Each structure stands twice: as C-alpha cells, then as structure tokens.
Amino acid sequence: MIGDFIIMLLEGGKAFWLFVTTHMVTLMGFIIGLLVMGQLIRQRRQTSNIFAWFLLIILMPFIGVILYFLFGGTKSRTVLRNKQRVRKFTSELACKAHPDIAPDPDHPYEFATLEGNSFEFLPDAKTCFDALCREIENATESIHIMTYILGDDEAGRPVVDLLAKRAREGVEVKLLIDALGSLGRGGKFTDPIRKAGGRVARFMPVLPLQTRTSANLRNHRKVAIFDHKRCLTGGQNIDTRFMGPNPTPETFLDFSAVIEGPIVSQFNRHFVSDWCFATRDDVQEFHDELMYKPEPAGDNTMRLVPGGPDFERDTLWEQLIIYMQECQEEILIVTPYFLPDDVIFASLAVKAHRGKKITLIIPEHSNQKMVDRARYFFLRELHDDGVDIQFYQPGMVHAKLFIVDRKIAMIGSANMDRRSFFVNFEMGLFIKSPETIKQLQAWADALLPDCEPFHRSEKAKATAGRVFLEDIAHLMMPLL
What pLDDT does 383 receive? Predict the structure, then answer.
C-alpha cells in the first residue's frame, strides 16, 4: 500500500516535471522567436524576406531560429568595419599608384574604368581548366587563387598538386576557399600546399560562433591572379562540374577569361582584402603588391564592380539597374538561376512594355529544384510582358552574362538572384570593348539552337497542382 502510494507520487512528479519542462521549452522558443523577429524588423529588410522568416519561425520555431542564426545574416556590422578598414588602406595606395585617376566621392576608386586590358575568352570547361593549369605553370613570382568550390576530383586534385609543386619551386602560393562551398577541403586535402610552403585559408567558417556573424555570408568570387598582372576570372569553380580535363555531357556550360593589364590591380586589391579578412594578416604587409600597376596589354576598357555585405550599398545590383534603365534597344541575360528582386523584375517588364528586345536564357532544369519552382512566377509574368525566355535543353547552364545594347557586357560570379546581389561576396566585370562584346554575344547566340521557347515547355502550363507548389517555393524564395 505504502509502496503503491510512493510509486504514484513519483509518477505524478514525473508528469509534473514533464509538463513544466514542455511548457518552459515552448515559452523559451516563443521568446527567442520574438527576439529574432524584432531583429528582422530592425534590419529593415525587404517585406518578402521578413515574411518568409516569420513563416518559418512560426511553423517550426526551434528549427527556424537555428536556421536563422546559421543562414539569416545579410549585412554585418562586424564584417563591414573589418573590410572597410582594409579597403580604406588599399584605396589610398591605389590612388598613389594611379594618380591619373581622380577619385570620385560617388564612385570609389574600386569602380574606376581602366583601359589597356587584354581579354582571352575561355568558352568551355576544358579550355578553362587547361588555361588555369598553364597559368599556374608559367607564374614566376606569385599565384593567388580564391574560389567558392574546390573539388576533390580530377579538376581539384591536379590543381592542388600543381600549386604544391610551384610552392616547392619558390613561387608564393595563396589559396582562399569558401568554408561552406569547399566544406571539408581546408584540411588534409590541401595539406600538400602547406607542406610545400604555400598557404591555404578558409573564408568565413560555417559555424557563426567562430566568426560572430552569419554562415549565410559566403565568398562566391572566383579569380586566380598570377604575378599580380594576369588573372583568370568568371563563374567556374575548380570542380569537375565546372571545368576539367575530360568534360562529360553532365558538365555545366560556362565560360571564363584570362585578363592582363591595369584592371588586374583591382583584382589584386580585392584578393588582398578578402585574404586579410579571412586570415587576419596585416594589410600593411601587402604594400608593394597593392602599389603595383600592371602595364597595358590590350585595347579592352573594363570596370570591376564588387558586391557584398562589406558595402553599405548594394553596389553590383545598383550598377545593373542603371544599365537596365539606360537600355535603348536590347538586353541579353544568361543566368543559371533567375530569382530577381522587385526592382530588376519591374525594370525588365517596363523595358519589354516599351518594345525593347529582352532575351533571357536559362537552363530548363538547373541543379536547384526549389529555385526552379520559385522562378515560374516571374517567368510567366515576364513572358506575358513580351520577354523572350529561352530554356536551354542539353543540360545545366552555369554562365553569367549580361549585355545591354551590345555596348556594355558584364561577366563574373553573380547570378541573377537576390543571394548574389544582397548576401554573397561577388564580382562583376563590366566590359565596353566592341570586339569582346561581339565575342560574348556570339557565344550566347550559339546556345539558341539548343533552346526551346518558354511557351512550348510543359512547365509553362499553369496547372493547379504546379502553381500550388510554385507558390510555396515563391514564399520561401527569400531564404533560397
């Protein structure tokens, strides 16, 4: 009898504490959710971004809060202060190195237009891989590479081996990889470079506690700089999906370019800025490199516009908007992912309404299924507005190309989506040379025979089930 009573009390106590614990956890989740929502509002984000996070946190409080702290960051005051300190020093040196360019308070030096550059077009995966290996072999003083993805495959392994070989031969080697894009490649895989005397750094560790900021802020830039005067840049990562000695039908369609001339000084500066931020090296150690002015090597006029959370303004996005609004005849866009913000979406619609020729080339099936579903809201609207939307059929197009009136072109790392314009560290190289633009236009035109117009695609049909899934994806778009 007494034993049964004691058991009953113990069981009642367990139930009581289970009740208290459950409600305490619920209350804590609610309080943390409110704090996160308050932070979202204070950051003055776009309404759609706030709504998407609100919806996720309300439906899945604990998972939503964890995901927010991991991937919810956009502009970071800590990042801004650290990167601005580096940029201020590099800008001062740049003005000394280029006294012929007067600084403009509205357009900082890093956006200056520089003449006298060469442009070697690398139109496919093998050409790009061969050029990268060639430039690494031919470098005599330094090799500085930053990439979002470094693969442990027949593209990444030969590059790591080559970099280790050149480091042993006395060439200064620095490799900067993004910690998320190249997850697991910063240790044993790249040790040969370190053991040979080179250096490898990871940009922005994934866990936010390691950086006191968000794992959402990724370095998506791709550039390899050789002897401070030549560089290879574009949208291709060092991975067999993007480049390699033996491309397959599954290899992404993309291009890059080898550039030589004064514009490489700008690439140097941004590499130093990103490297010093990632490693905490003293930027003063790069004084001579930042002062170096490459000699003219061609007749291309270029302007490098970076974008990222270390800028108070969305610089790359602003520049694209300016060129869109100045369009007189036509706009060509090639992009793997198309999730525009409201301003770009409206700008394209207005230009189409006014009879301008707007051509959008995208893969019918990209490697991001949720992104594919979310884009159809925009595609149907733009198609109705008169935009010529072409679905590339053979495979994945990963190229990023923007041409206005065949007079200005942009290549680089940025996709036509919100992540590239408002979250990632990106680079856009604007080119104003007719022959180079003609080459880029011809590359894009060669895709058209393998494309299908949007209205002929089965996915263009707005069935009830398809639209419902697309609406869900569209709601989640600011989180993609």
Answer: 95
Same domain, 321 and 354: yes
- Across 375-402, b (16+ Cβ under 10 Å) vs e yields bbbbbbebbeebbbbbbbeebbbbbbbb
CB–CB of 329/357 below 8 Å? yes
CATH code: domain of residue 471: 3.30.870.10
Nearest by Cα to 476 from 371, 378, 338: 371
Which pLDDT tens digit goes with each residue over 14-38?
A: 554 554 455 555 555 555 555 555 5
pLDDT tens, position by position, 259-305: 999 999 999 989 998 999 889 898 888 888 888 889 999 999 999 99
CA 339 and chain centroid, separation: 13
H or E segment and range at residue 392: strand 388-392
Q: Name residue 416's beta-bridge partners.
A: 338
CA distance 390 to 383: 10
- The predicted pLDDT at position 119 comes to 98
Exposed/middle/buried for residue 130 (C-beta within 10 Å: 0-12, 13-18, 19+): middle
For the whole model, what pTM was predicted?
A: 0.84
**pLDDT value, residue 6:** 40
pLDDT tens figures, 118-155: 999 999 999 999 999 999 999 999 999 999 999 999 99
| Domain-embedded: residue 327 | yes
* Four-CA torsion 48, 51, 56, 62, nearest 10 degrees: 120
Task: Give me the domain span that covers residue 258.
Answer: 77-301
Backbone φ and ψ for 201, nearest 5 degrees, come out as: -130, 150
Domain count, the chain: 3
Q: Are residues 331 and 403 in the same domain?
A: yes
DSSP state of 187: S
| Identity of residue 204 | M
Helix (H) or strand (E) holding 199: strand 199-203
What backbone torsions phi and psi does residue 340 show, to the nearest 5 degrees?
Answer: -75, 155
* Paired tokens of 89: 């020093």
Answer whether residue 445 is part of any domain: yes
Q: Which two tokens stand for residue 389?
A: 């939307």
Phi-psi label, residue 197: left if phi above 0, alpha if psi -120 to 50, beta otherwise: left
Integer angstrom CA distances of residue 186 from 177, 183, 195, 209, 375? 8, 7, 13, 18, 34
CA distance 412 to 400: 6
The span from the CA of 129 to the CA of 159, in Å, is 9
